[in-house]
Design brief:
The structure holds 2 protein chains of 2 kinds. Chain A is an alpha/beta fold. Chain A contains 14 helices and 13 strands. In chain A, the strands form 2 sheets. In chain A, strands 3-4-5-6-2-1-7 form a 7-stranded mixed β-sheet. Chain A has a 6-stranded mixed β-sheet with strand order 9-10-8-11-12-13, sandwiched between helices. In chain A, helix 6 (159-183) packs antiparallel against helix 7. By secondary structure, chain B is an alpha+beta fold. In chain B, strands 1, 2, 6, 7, 8, 9 and 20 form a 7-stranded mixed β-sheet that branches. Chain B starts with a strand and ends with a helix. The chains are: A alpha/beta, B alpha+beta.
């Protein structure tokens, strides 16, 4: 059961905890100004102040008449406020104690503590923003770097709403065309022919949705970085390359094959993209390992694990020696995954058969002499920026949106399989309804609460 | 002066159902019409049903209406539509003999107990305060009635257009009702203007049928009504022909003489049943349009060319028709025409079809911005039932969107209104896989019985059908058959996968290639054969579409949840916080009965619904 109603006045500390220059306490609701009247002492009574004005004064405890702090009071009158209701904002000195004292007296004077995200929720309910924009506010307040910030801003400006509307219109057109077939008499043959034609168009829509999903899955690399494992047979120079990419001597490098036993992991920013580089023991088949080889064998096992979980693989080969069975093993392990072929040791006489990779692109480097490393870096970051950028630019979706799109894609796929027009339509119509829930409230309290509970109080 | 319980104005398809329902529910009912000889006239095509419309008629029939029964008395050609492309949304349609249809329905009305027919042109609705109390006619005769059902069709300020010529008429050759619309405006109703049309009628002796594609009826034909006992027959054949480039050129060259395109017609036309000039202009990429040549009846030479209604001048009409294959030498018997008429904005009605402005006054049919006999008939029934219930001081009768096509139509009209003539479509129906023709009786006959519109024998028949259905569904679910060469040979001939382990009959029937008849052949269970086609379809559909049907029942539950949040009729929307003034005004004007209906009012935002829900919960907790 919901506690609040719109007759309530809510209050909360809007700034982060901890020592700071100032703290801001926000009040919203019909009693905001009368509460300020009771607490604020300054040149002007808040209820006499014009909207959108700032006033210097003191906040006093209305019972003890004790001054709590000197503050700046901002008065915002409905309807042109964040929530659409009357609002007051008190900027006090940046101490948790002072701010919470002020909040306490506000609540004693007739407000109640706001729930997380309640200010923004009221804004949505006042029809001042749609739900995707509200989610963008959340993302914006949590944004960690420039690109996540930019995508949140895009969303706030309605880019996602536009995308959803566009998708919705495409679906509506398709649905209307199938409905038309169902509602008007034509020969059975014509109907089936037309139906198949339309279903083919649905497939293109689904392809577009799937692309957006993929892009967004790629976006996670922007937030949490790319896990990139360096793999190759022993002694191809994986650790040298690792050090070069890190621009520091992190891994021990020797001429002895199998020097690297355990995997090393370091994080580095390459062209503004975060890579978690993992140096491994490499891949090789050890039959009946002896005592010394046992450690190496464990390392190799670990390399196998990394191969499974990594986002990206640098497959390193020795350009100065002929292709071996072990190289083939390495290539077989990576060829179906996102990877780059790196031919190391280009400072020596080439003996490697490059034709083995056929048309696949290779990057030539000499880790030892730091040749071609920048080229490698560019190739690494490019394969991600391309994925992330794609057709819709930075259309960043949160988990809820992504989940809806995935379900929608599934429903469309089901529609494609249907023999009957009306069952295909059930799927497409469900999809359309689902899509509607991205931007509208759908009168579903649960969706609402899920979204707003992620907000910090005071937003 | 006699005081009637229910006065019905208009003897069209809405007025007929309204007056029969009221009389059958025991009310002293008066049917006032401008011309008793025109009662039940089919102003447009001589056919009942069609996609979406067939469902309305079957529902009407299941509730105790007359349209389907009367169709069976006068039908000459039966066809099921959509059986191939969408078994769950197949619709019935029947061609009738126009004269016979009219005569048989008049006979039914004249034999109906409690029902009185009277000629009279109503000019005024008599009111006392905010309540209707009777009517007055053009000869200053007054009739007193506890309730009044108004069903005037296209007659309100009717204006016929043929080319640039136009003249007042309610239908070709009949006078319009010109005083009543003014009276309605004076009473405070918001009125609008719509346009509809009808094609020319053709002299069958001048049609070259050899050149046309014949379209025989279904064999065996299935009666329209659940209650028809006699064997129905296909007695006539329909034909198909097409327009061509020459036809389209003639129409294009004539557009400047079309009142529709010259701006003479102000009313909005039916988008879904457009005139041929509309089709040519709007679907310019189509190189031909289908035309059905339908017989007008058994004892007439006239034919009805379905799909070519127009308001073009008469000379262009003839030229255009003669450009069509098979019609090269055609003579017309009656010209095509467009007709403009007044309607009242249906959002001024409650879901009972009672007006919000005046108690005991009900509107039904084309006056509510609809088009079609079936739409009119269904509204007539609901208005008649509710007028009778008012007289008897009983609770109102409302069908919801999850009950019936009728419920969808009326909810659309009174909640959303319409900016073009409203026609029933299956796509308007959210739960159409459940609201089907084959189960209309199972869904609605118990309701009709409770109202007193269904005789005991019919009700018993439905109960029996339900029992048989359960029995057969159980049998299909519980009977397992093991693979053997006989069964697999049969499956092979049906082009479906062979079985290698025991399966239930239900699992077999779920396959698209297998019919219930095939199941009987495989099992040899003669005692499970079905003579009732609607039950046969019912079982096939419910097995084959089970997954989707179950999903829809879940959707209905969700739908009903919000539908059940009632809005008290005393609620002052102005005190609900979080609603914009515009939305407050909308809600105050339309007074939705529940949150679901409020949600469907155009312009009412989800945020507003949420605010309203919070408010309703709060006041519910308080009291």
């Amino acid at each position: 059961m919901r506690k609040e109603s719109y007759t309530d006045t809510i209050a909360a500390i809007a700034t982060a905890r901890g020592p700071a220059g100032i703290s801001i306490i926000r009040i919203s609701g019909p009693r905001s100004i009368s509460i300020a009247d009771k607490l604020f002492r300054g040149k002007i009574k808040p209820s006499r102040a014009k909207s959108h004005t700032v006033h210097f004064g003191e906040i006093c405890n209305p019972i003890s008449q004790q001054v709590i702090d000197q503050v700046m009071l901002s008065v915002f009158l409905a309807p042109h406020t964040y929530t659409g209701d009357d609002m007051a904002e008190i900027s006090c000195h940046g101490s948790d104690f002072v701010a919470s004292q002020i909040l306490k007296v506000i609540i004693k004077t007739g407000a109640r503590l706001a729930e997380p995200g309640e200010f923004t929720k009221r804004r949505v309910l006042a029809n001042k923003m749609d739900i995707t924009q509200a989610e963008a506010v959340l993302a914006l307040t949590n944004a960690k770097n420039e690109s996540t910030c930019r995508s949140a801003l895009d969303q706030l400006q309605g880019k996602l709403t536009g995308y959803v509307a566009d998708l919705g219109n495409q679906l509506k057109t398709i649905i209307a065309r199938i409905e038309h077939l169902l509602e008007f008499e034509e020969s059975n043959q014509t109907t089936q022919l037309q139906f198949r034609k339309i279903i083919n168009q649905v497939k293109t829509i689904r392809a577009d949705i799937d692309k957006t999903i993929k892009q967004n899955e790629a976006l996670k690399y922007l937030h949490s970085g790319v896990y990139c494992v360096i793999i190759g047979k022993p002694n191809v120079g994986k650790s040298s390359l690792f050090n070069r990419l890190l621009e520091q001597d992190r891994a021990i490098v020797t001429e002895i094959p199998g020097t690297t036993r355990d995997s090393l992991q370091e994080t580095v920013s390459i062209n503004n993209l975060i890579f978690h580089l993992i140096d491994t023991a490499g891949l090789k088949i050890i039959k009946n390992p002896d005592k010394t080889q046992k450690i190496e064998a464990i390392g190799i096992e670990k390399s196998q694990d990394w191969l499974k979980t990594a986002d990206f693989i640098l497959a390193v080969f020795d350009n100065s020696s002929p292709l071996t069975q072990q190289d083939r093993l390495v290539y077989d392990a990576v060829k179906h995954k996102p990877h780059l072929i790196v031919l190391n040791k280009i400072d020596r006489t080439p003996h490697f058969n490059k034709n083995f990779f056929k048309s696949e692109k290779t990057v030539l480097v000499s880790a030892k002499y730091n040749q071609g490393v920048d080229r490698l870096k560019n190739a690494m970051s490019r394969s991600y920026t391309r994925k992330i950028a794609g057709g819709n630019g930075y259309l960043a979706l949160n988990e809820r949106h992504l989940d809806i799109l995935k379900q929608l894609s599934g429903l469309i796929k089901q529609a494609e399989k249907e023999n009957y027009l009306e069952t295909a339509l059930v799927n497409l119509r469900n999809g359309l309804d689902l899509l509607g829930s991205v931007t509208s409230l759908v009168s579903n309290e649960q969706i609402l609460d899920t979204i707003f509970s992620k907000f910090c109080i005071g937003k | 002066m006699i005081r009637y319980d229910v006065i019905v104005i208009g003897g069209g398809h809405a007025g007929i159902e309204a007056s029969l329902a009221a009389a059958r529910m025991g009310c002293q009912t008066l049917l006032l019409t401008m011309n008793i000889d025109s009662i039940g006239l089919m102003s447009c095509n001589p056919a009942i049903g069609g996609i979406g419309k067939g469902q309305l008629v079957r529902e009407l029939d299941a509730l105790g209406g007359e349209m389907a029964k009367n169709t069976d008395k006068s039908a000459v050609h039966y066809r099921q539509l959509n059986t191939k492309k969408g078994q769950a949304v197949h619709s019935s349609r029947a061609q009738t003999d126009r004269v016979m249809y009219k005569n048989t329905i008049l006979e039914t009305l004249q034999k109906q107990e409690n029902l009185f027919l009277r000629t009279g042109t109503v000019t005024k609705i008599l009111t006392k305060g905010k309540t209707a109390i009777g009517v007055e006619t053009s000869i200053k005769e007054k009739f007193s009635g506890e309730t009044v059902v108004l069903a005037p069709g296209t007659f309100l300020s009717g204006l016929i257009h043929i080319g640039m010529v136009n003249f007042p008429a309610g239908r070709l050759g009949e006078n319009p009702a010109n005083e009543l619309p003014q009276n309605l405006k004076d009473l405070g109703f918001r009125m609008g203007r719509f346009k509809t049309g009808t094609p020319a009628r053709l002299d069958g002796r001048t049609i070259d049928f050899a050149k046309l594609e014949a379209q025989p009826g279904d064999e065996p034909p299935m009666p329209f009504s659940f209650w028809t006992r006699h064997k129905v027959k296909n007695q006539q054949v329909c034909y198909i022909t097409y327009t061509n480039k020459k036809t389209h050129d003639i129409i294009k060259s004539g557009l400047k003489y079309s009142p529709l395109y010259a701006g003479v017609i102000k009313g909005t036309g039916v988008r879904y049943c457009p005139s041929i000039e509309d089709k040519i202009v709007r679907f310019g990429d189509r190189d031909r349009h289908q035309i059905f040549i339908e017989p007008e009846g058994l004892n007439t030479i006239e034919y009805y060319p379905n799909g070519i209604s127009t308001s073009l001048p008469i000379n262009i009409q003839i030229k255009m028709l003669r450009s069509i294959k098979g019609l090269e030498k055609v003579e017309i018997t009656r010209p095509a025409y467009a007709i403009e008429h007044d309607y009242a904005d249906p959002t001024q009605l409650k879901p009972t079809l009672e007006t919000r402005l005046y108690n005991n006054l009900y509107f039904a049919g084309q006056i509510n911005a609809t088009t079609g006999y079936e739409e009119a008939g269904a509204q007539g029934l609901i208005a008649g039932i509710n007028a009778a219930l008012r007289v008897k001081e009983k609770d109102e009768f409302i069908l919801s969107r999850s009950d019936a096509y009728i419920g969808v139509m009326i909810d659309d009209l009174v909640t959303k209104g319409t900016n073009e003539p409203y026609r029933m479509f299956t796509s308007r129906v959210e739960y159409r896989l459940i609201l089907r023709e084959d189960n209309a009786d199972l869904r609605l006959t118990p309701k009709g019985y409770a109202l007193g519109l269904i005789p005991n024998t019919h009700y018993k028949k439905v109960l029996q059908k339900q029992r048989k259905k359960n029995l057969i569904l159980d049998w299909l679910k519980q009977t397992r058959i093991s693979p053997n060469s006989k069964i697999n040979n049969k499956l092979k001939t049906l082009n479906t996968a062979l079985i290698n382990q025991p399966v239930t009959l239900e699992e077999l029937l779920r396959r698209p290639q297998i019919s219930y008849q095939n199941i009987l052949e495989i099992t040899g269970a003669v005692n499970k054969s079905l003579t009732d086609n609607s039950l046969l379809w019912n079982i096939e559909i419910e097995v084959k579409y089970k997954g989707y049907i179950d999903r829809m029942y879940k959707d209905i539950e969700k739908f009903q949840e919000i539908e059940e949040i009632k809005i008290p009729d005393t609620l002052d929307f102005r005190i609900v916080q979080g609603l914009s003034n515009e939305i407050k005004e909308k809600l105050t004007k339309q007074r939705p009965l529940n949150l679901g209906q409020a949600q469907r009012i155009p312009g009412v935002t989800p945020a507003a619904i949420f605010a309203l829900m919070v408010f309703l919960k709060k006041i519910k907790n308080k009291y």
